[in-house]
Amino acid sequence: GIGKSTWASCAPSPIFIQTEDGAGGIDCDKFPVATCYADVMKCLASLYTEQNTYQTIVLDSLDWTERIIWSEVCKKKAVESIEDIGYAKGYAFALTQWRELLEALTALRNDKGMTTILIAHSKIERFENPETESYDRFAPRLHKLAAAVMQEWCDEVLFANYKVYTKQSGEGIRKRNQGVGGDERVIHTQERPAYAAKNRLGLPEEIPLIWSEYAKYLTTQGGK
Q1: What does pTM read for this prediction?
Q2: Scanning 11, 21, 171, 186, which has the fewest C-beta atoms within 10 Å of its C-beta?
């Protein structure tokens, strides 16, 4: 609810591929909500083969797309749940569909000059850092195998959040830190212990969650 879909809708000539109804209230072009993996691939195929003027593909969202992919794996393996595939192999099998999807997006980028924006929700997970003690951090709400593939493929991994400050209240041993903040929303662009992020555009560490601010750093080529 921070405004990721609204931000993406401000990209040049966007078309949304929906796997959830996150863009339902946004005035933008969109395909009907996909309910299966074939629906998603048909959307990508139509953008490749049919004449159109779209410049940006917005996949909203990755975590709901993952559910669709898991359903596809279950159908192929004739099981009810991806967990029914022993030794967690189901998540490895799902990478076949993820890579097929990325190949389609890559073709649209290379052959049609289209930019891709992938929207994902976040989760808090335990990060095992070999140089320090383990700690919690924000990460995409995806299985770790899929998250690694998606983050490697993307040119930018950006984390949107509200600007938060802390202040101390109380006295003596009753002192405690309080999180405070208003409606200021920002994009974090560089890796920090609290979240995964990266960019290849030389972005500042933090920029406002406003498309025009991000667009200042874009090149003329399509990206992802």
Answers
A1: 0.87
A2: 171
